[in-house]
Design a protein that fits this description.
homodimer; mainly alpha
Chain lengths: ~150, ~150
């Protein structure tokens, strides 16, 4: 424990891109974060039923890794104590700009009719236009939506 | 071949985050792109000697995949015809905002003394400050640096 605190103060010594990739840069971790940010999901069963078809062992492994890296917190659902709910920490919410940059890129290079639209649970449809005009405002709004869901 | 063209016109049908992850979202692909954008690398031997220690078979596989996905072009080095050089296409250059968003996040959550600084080959040191003030300008400058290297 002492060792890990010391390590965290000194930093990983990795280049910033490598550090980011080690923490959240695998497909399944980013799809879990996407599910929370854009699809309003918060529990194991919801993540499991995403269209990409994650397996139970990979999902459990990535949730534990994201929790260990302080991207997610895991708490008992107050309405059903047998169930856990996963929420993004501030460190996790701060990944929203990475997701937005990826969405911008895909909207340009993939031709999905809904690309960049209708992907946010209960949020406005003009995400990418507004992201270009006022990136900070859209990041704040998405973070606020997620915090509000957590409190309700 | 026809089938794949048709698929590309219709779009992948995936959500934008999933599409992006399928094209460039594995650790080694992003480290190759980082090496080109921030470290001025352009050939197989240079990628192989990055500190993360990629194996030859993974490196060859990811270079081929990035070329197939039109992120990179592979051409013979005009000064040494036995050597190939890899350059980012516009589709690849358009990933710079994703790398910048990852760098911003790591600079906040990792404590590497050089985080976000000195990581750009021949570019100014105040990358992250300038990215906050004028994101479009820093993306254009990085793209321009890469194009200029290619031409020299």
């Amino acid at each position: 424990m002492k060792k890990s605190r010391k390590k965290s103060r000194k930093g990983s010594g990795k280049c910033p891109i490598h550090f980011a990739l080690e923490v959240f840069g695998d497909k399944w971790s980013l799809l879990i974060i996407r599910d929370i940010v854009f699809k309003g999901k918060s529990c194991y069963g919801e993540f499991l039923h995403s269209p990409e078809g994650v397996s139970t062992n990979i999902l459990a492994n990535r949730l534990a890794k994201l929790e260990a890296n302080e991207i997610l917190t895991k708490t008992r659902d107050p309405e059903n104590l047998a169930k856990f709910q996963y929420d993004l920490t501030q460190k996790g919410l701060d990944l929203i700009p990475v997701l937005l940059a990826m969405t911008e890129w895909s909207a340009k290079y993939d031709f999905h009719p809904n690309n960049g639209r209708n992907i946010i649970h209960g949020a406005p449809e003009d995400l990418l236009e507004r992201n270009k005009l006022d990136h900070d405002a859209i990041v704040a709004e998405l973070s606020e939506n997620i915090r509000a869901r957590k409190e309700n």
